[in-house]
């Protein structure tokens, strides 16, 4: 149903709606629909809150069902931030009012009509909350700054611009180039949300420097203040937030398995002791997550793998780097997943082989063309490449790892000392 009445509004909500409607009118983001115009489509407005600030958006959920998906790729945040390895200066810029800087085609405006106690309005600029807004804005930004991105000193994530460099002189020039491109297309930057020339700053939910990547504990604190989830929606919200940082968390899939099962169909929502313990454990892991290092793609990598029927598959990607003249080994990321029902019946050697193949597939972004060692507590894994077998799983896995032959060395590490692979 695309023609819907306004939602009931409390006095507080009405006041916020009036404030935002007047602001959007003054910015020419919306226009009021005359009484003589026929309105076939209209969407009620919502007020959402984030960090104590309100935002008005249309409830465009019904419209999404009739909208073709724009498959333009949005950058993966970990890979975007990892490009800043070795950077000594980082600048973050935020596009003012984000999507509102993009226009809307005249024939699409009639689809973007909103209703509230003040009347019916029509968006003339791209609103928040529509299905393809992020992809459309990302495409526009990538097109404008294509040259800068290809030169390797700029990352764009929708309406966030991040500039990084090893020298201050280059950094100043890069900032000037970006700002000079913003002016002709009238792309406005929010100065109060900018951070210029920092060695470390908060970006995309992380504290990032040229050496490391940490969880933004301000984001975590806001989540930890909330009570234990009372329903599936609240639990899904908590798990979605936690999963955003799963690269930082050992045994993520094992810790959260009982919580994910709670969100399954035909499962009664009940917080048992096991689930409460898992919830509290995840809160602890988020608060005490290790600082990750940023990868150097010209240096060798190390992968520590381990598999167990009770805990699933886990791996940790490490690298040894020179920091302040001293060699140091650090974690780049943890990965994990639960075993499928059919996989739980594998023998120990098969499970370790599965873990290796799965880890290589998940970490291919880092490993393609790189030299790396795989550390395992399974002696049989060392001979996997040359093993004579008729087992169809083992044959398929042998084929899967052939592309890494020559660059990969499998190293046995005794179980007691093999503790780095706690990525379950």
Automatic annotation (TrEMBL):
Q: Show the Pfam families listed in the entry.
A: RT_RNaseH (PF17917), RVT_1 (PF00078)
List, alphabetically, the Gene3D superfamilies matched: 3.30.70.270, HIV Type 1 Reverse Transcriptase, subunit A, domain 1
Q: Which residues form a coiled coil?
A: none
* Occurrences of domain Reverse transcriptase (ranges): 1-243
Q: What keyword terms does UniProt attach to this protein?
A: Endonuclease, Hydrolase, Nuclease, Nucleotidyltransferase, RNA-directed DNA polymerase, Transferase
Q: Highest taxon of the source? A: Eukaryota
| Signal peptide residues on this chain, from the entry's feature table | none
Any single GO molecular-function term of the entry would be: hydrolase activity
CDD domains found in the cross-reference section: RNase_HI_RT_Ty3 (cd09274), RT_LTR (cd01647)
Protein known as? Reverse transcriptase domain-containing protein
């Amino acid at each position: 149903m695309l023609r819907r009445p306004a939602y009931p509004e409390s006095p507080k909500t009405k006041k916020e709606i009036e404030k935002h409607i007047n602001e959007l009118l003054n910015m020419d983001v919306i226009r009021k629909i005359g009484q003589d115009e026929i309105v076939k489509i209209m969407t009620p407005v919502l007020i959402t809150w984030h960090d104590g600030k309100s935002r008005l958006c249309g409830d465009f959920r019904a419209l999404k069902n009739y909208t073709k998906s724009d498959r333009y790729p949005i950058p993966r945040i970990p890979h975007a931030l990892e490009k800043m390895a070795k950077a000594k200066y980082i600048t973050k810029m935020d596009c003012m009012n984000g999507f509102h800087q993009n226009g809307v085609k005249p024939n699409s405006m009639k689809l973007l009509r909103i209703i509230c106690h003040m009347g019916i309005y029509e968006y003339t600029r791209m609103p928040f909350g529509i299905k393809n807004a992020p992809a459309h804005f990302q495409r526009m930004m990538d097109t404008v700054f294509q040259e800068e991105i290809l030169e390797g000193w700029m990352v764009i994530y929708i309406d966030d611009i991040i500039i990084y460099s090893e020298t201050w002189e280059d950094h100043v020039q890069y900032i000037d180039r970006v700002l000079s491109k913003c002016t002709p297309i009238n792309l406005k930057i929010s100065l109060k949300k900018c951070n210029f020339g920092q060695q470390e700053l908060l970006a995309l939910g992380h504290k990032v420097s040229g050496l490391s990547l940490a969880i933004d504990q301000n984001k975590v604190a806001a989540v930890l203040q909330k009570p234990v989830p009372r329903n599936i929606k609240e639990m899904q919200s908590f798990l979605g937030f936690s999963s955003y940082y799963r690269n930082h968390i050992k045994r993520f899939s094992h810790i959260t398995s009982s919580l994910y099962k709670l969100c399954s169909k035909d499962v009664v929502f009940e917080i048992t002791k096991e689930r409460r313990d898992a919830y509290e454990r995840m809160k602890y892991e988020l608060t005490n997550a290790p600082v990750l290092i940023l990868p150097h793609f010209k240096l060798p990598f190390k992968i520590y793998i381990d598999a167990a029927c009770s805990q699933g598959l886990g791996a940790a990607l490490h690298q040894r780097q020179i920091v302040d003249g001293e060699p140091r080994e650090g974690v780049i990321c943890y990965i994990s997943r639960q075993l499928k029902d059919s996989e739980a019946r594998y023998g120990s050697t098969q499970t370790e082989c599965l873990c290796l193949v799965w880890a290589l597939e998940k970490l291919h972004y880092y490993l393609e063309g790189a030299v790396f060692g795989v550390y395992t507590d399974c002696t049989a894994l060392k001979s996997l490449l040359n093993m004579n077998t008729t087992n169809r799983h083992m044959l398929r896995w042998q084929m899967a790892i052939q592309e890494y032959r020559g660059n990969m060395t499998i190293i046995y590490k005794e179980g007691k000392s093999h503790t780095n692979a706690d990525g379950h």
